[in-house]
Design goal:
The protein is of the alpha/beta class. The protein has helices at residues 2-7, 29-34, 51-63, 82-93, 104-113, 118-131, 142-147, 154-163, and strands at residues 13-16, 36-39, 45-46, 71-74, 80-81, 98-101. It is built from 8 helices and 6 strands; from the N terminus they run αβαββαββαβαααα. Helix 4 packs parallel to helix 8 and helix 5 (104-113) runs antiparallel to helix 6. The protein is globular, with a radius of gyration of 18 Å. The termini are far apart. 31% of the residues are buried. This is NmrA family transcriptional regulator.
């Protein structure tokens, strides 16, 4: 019975770009507070997605009609390099924030210095090398198609997070 029900399940796939909130939570938070984002993204551009947009799309897909079988590729409205994102964060915080690109192995070594296990550090470095190789630089209109509005821009996220005290330290 379960196999039959699973075969009739309606599925909607939601995939997303790098989250804007990665700069206000988790591993990149301290870099913004300290004014230096050390990260292995090189010069790749990323259409940073605000998690509010992701949540709104998922709610719409779960509660609305017409989403079964859809595949949504969610992005912000424009692509930024990490250096450009750092500049935007600096404007929002009123303090300089600069991006320092490092290689994957150098990033793994830095993680290990902060107590991350060697295997996990190597995995994270490889993960970021795969995710941030430039293949996600293109934007889509999927947020607008689902929600009927433009996705939130990174600069708006940065101003809101700064106003809410995300980087007070």
């Amino acid at each position: 019975a379960l196999r039959g029900a699973a075969g009739r399940a309606e599925v909607t796939v939601v995939r997303s770009a790098f989250f804007a909130q990665n700069f206000s939570e988790g591993a990149l938070l301290d870099g913004v507070i300290g004014g230096e984002l050390v990260f292995p993204a090189g010069t790749a551009a990323e259409p940073f997605l605000d998690l509010d947009d992701l949540a709104d799309v998922v709610v719409a897909a779960l509660t609305g009609d017409g989403h079964a079988g859809a595949v949504y590729e969610l992005t912000g409205p424009r692509s930024l390099t990490f250096a450009q994102a750092a500049e935007e964060l600096g404007r929002a915080t009123g303090r300089p924030v600069r991006y320092v690109p490092v290689t994957g192995p150098a990033y793994a070594s830095l993680l290990e210095e902060f107590g991350v296990a060697e295997a996990e550090a190597a995995f994270l470095a490889e993960l970021f090398a795969t995710l941030l190789d430039g293949h996600n630089a293109a934007t889509t209109d999927d947020v607008k198609r689902v929600l009927g509005r433009e996705p939130k821009d990174f600069s708006g996220f940065a101003r809101e997070a700064a106003r809410d005290g995300a980087w007070r330290g």
